[in-house]
Amino acid sequence: MNFEDQLHRYFGTADFDALTPDALAAGMERMRVDFGLETDRGRRFALWSLLFLLGDAPDLDAFEEAADRDAARDFMDMMDRTEGEEPAGSE
User: Fold this and answer.
1) Disulfide check for 27: which of 8, 10, 12, 38 has CB 3.0–4.6 Å away?
2) Res 85: pLDDT
3) Inside any domain, residue 77
4) Which H, E and C letters describe the chain, residue by residue?
5) What is the percentage of the chain residues whose pLDDT exceeds 90?
6) Which residue has the higher pLDDT, 2 or 67?
7) Number of folded domains in the chain?
8) Is 15 inside any structural domain?
9) What is the domain extent for residue 38?
10) Cα distance between residue 45 and residue 41, in whole Å
């Protein structure tokens, strides 16, 4: 799953900064629908991760497998840890 391909698929552009609020909401709605319909665990996790980064991820109980819920928790923890870090070379 290529990130730019996903941006094109759901938002019609890879230029995320160019999205209007309506286009962003519509793309996230399409992602939530696809997340609910997706049967491949890896693709579901990728969709959930992108939704999480956009601030619109379903609750962890949306994952049937405990391993997937654990992976989602690990992802959230990893994102929390990186939020407080300074970018390399910013000192």
Assistant:
1) 10
2) 63
3) yes
4) CCHHHHHHHHHCCCCHHHCCHHHHHHHHHHHHHHHHHCCCHHHHHHHHHHHHHCCCCCCHHHCCCHHHHHHHHHHHHHHHHHHCCCCCCCC
5) 71
6) 67
7) 1
8) yes
9) 3-83
10) 6
